[in-house]
Specification:
With 74 residues, the protein is mostly helical. Helices cover 80% and strands 0% of the residues. The protein has four helices and no strands.
Length: 74
C-alpha cells in the first residue's frame, strides 16, 4: 500500500484507534532510533533553556501557554 493511501486510511479511524496505532508505531521503532530522538529532544530543551537564560527568549505564564495550545488544537 502506498504511504499516502495508508495515511488517508489511518486518518479515517476514530481518534482512540488513531492514538493506539500511533503508540504502536512509535513502540515499533528500534531502541537506537528512539534513543536518537530522545537525545535530540534533550539538545532542543537545552538550546531553549539557554535562549531563555540569555534573554533571547521569554517565558509566558502556564495559563497563557495552555490557552494558546488549546487554540491551536481546535
Amino acid at each position: 500500500m502506498q504511504m499516502e493511501a495508508l495515511k488517508a486510511e489511518a486518518l479515517r479511524l476514530p481518534a482512540a484507534e488513531r492514538a493506539q496505532l500511533a503508540a504502536e508505531l512509535l513502540e515499533s521503532l528500534d531502541a537506537r532510533e528512539a534513543g536518537d530522538v530522545e537525545q535530540l529532544w534533550a539538545a532542543e530543551a537545552e538550546r531553549r533553556y539557554q535562549a531563555y537564560k540569555s534573554g533571547q527568549a521569554r517565558g509566558i505564564p502556564w495559563e497563557e501557554a495552555m490557552r494558546e495550545a488549546k487554540r491551536r488544537l481546535t
